[in-house]
Write a structure and sequence with these properties.
The protein has a single domain, classed as P-loop containing nucleotide triphosphate hydrolases (Rossmann fold, 3-Layer(aba) Sandwich). The protein contains 6 helices and 6 strands.
C-alpha cells in the first residue's frame, strides 16, 4: 500500500442492480480516496480502449488514480460473447492479480466485472479467488448488474441501484458528459 491508507482492514464493496450509477459511485469513491492521497487502480472490464468516456478524460488528470480499459471496442449482448472478449477479460484478471500482489494501491475497482461474470466472459470462481486473496488493507470494489449470490455473500457493503424512472424509457439517448 502507498502508506496513505491508515486503515488496517479494507472492505469489499459491491455496486449492482439495473439502475444507473454503479460506476459513478465507484468513481466517486476513487476521487474521495485521491483527496486523501490514497492510490486507486480502476480496471474496466466491459469498456473498450477507443471509447470516449468522460471519466477517462477527467481521471487521467489525477495522479492518484490509474485506470485500465481491457474490454473490446464493441458493445455486446450476452449472446454475442466470443473468444476475443474472454481473452481481453483474462488479461484483466491477470492485471488484477498483479495489482493485488504489488500492493501499490489502496483501492482497487473492478468496474463491470460482475456483469462480465453474468455474460460468461469471466469465471465466477476467478472473482471469488480475487476476493479471497485481497490484501487486508486494500479496499476492493466490484460493479455490474446481475451479481451472483456467492459474490454478494462475500461483500461487506452491497448497494443495489434500482430504476424508478429513466429518460431512456422516453426515447432520450445517452448523453455525452451525463451517461458517458
Amino acid at each position: 500500500m502507498t502508506g496513505k491508507n491508515k486503515h488496517k482492514t479494507g472492505c469489499i464493496q459491491i455496486y449492482t442492480g439495473n439502475g444507473k450509477g454503479k460506476t459513478t459511485a465507484a468513481l466517486g469513491l476513487a476521487v474521495r480516496a485521491a483527496g486523501h492521497g490514497m492510490k486507486t487502480c480502476i480496471i474496466q472490464f466491459m469498456k473498450g480502449k477507443n471509447n470516449k468516456y468522460g471519466e477517462h478524460q477527467s481521471l487521467s488528470k489525477l495522479d492518484e488514480i490509474d485506470f485500465f480499459l481491457i474490454g473490446t471496442n464493441d458493445c455486446i449482448r450476452k449472446e454475442d460473447v466470443g473468444q476475443k472478449h474472454i481473452k481481453a477479460a483474462n488479461k484483466g484478471l491477470k492485471l488484477t492479480r498483479y495489482v493485488m500482489k504489488n500492493k501499490k494501491y489502496d483501492v482497487l475497482i473492478l468496474d463491470e466485472i460482475i456483469v462480465a461474470v453474468w455474460f460468461g466472459i469471466v469465471d465466477k470462481n476467478a472473482v471469488l479467488d480475487i476476493i479471497n486473496s485481497k490484501p487486508d488493507a486494500m479496499e476492493l470494489v466490484l460493479t455490474g448488474r446481475y451479481a451472483a449470490a456467492e459474490l454478494l455473500n462475500k461483500a461487506d457493503l452491497v448497494t443495489e441501484m434500482n430504476i424508478i424512472k429513466h429518460p431512456y424509457e422516453h426515447g432520450l439517448k445517452a448523453r455525452i458528459g451525463i451517461e458517458y
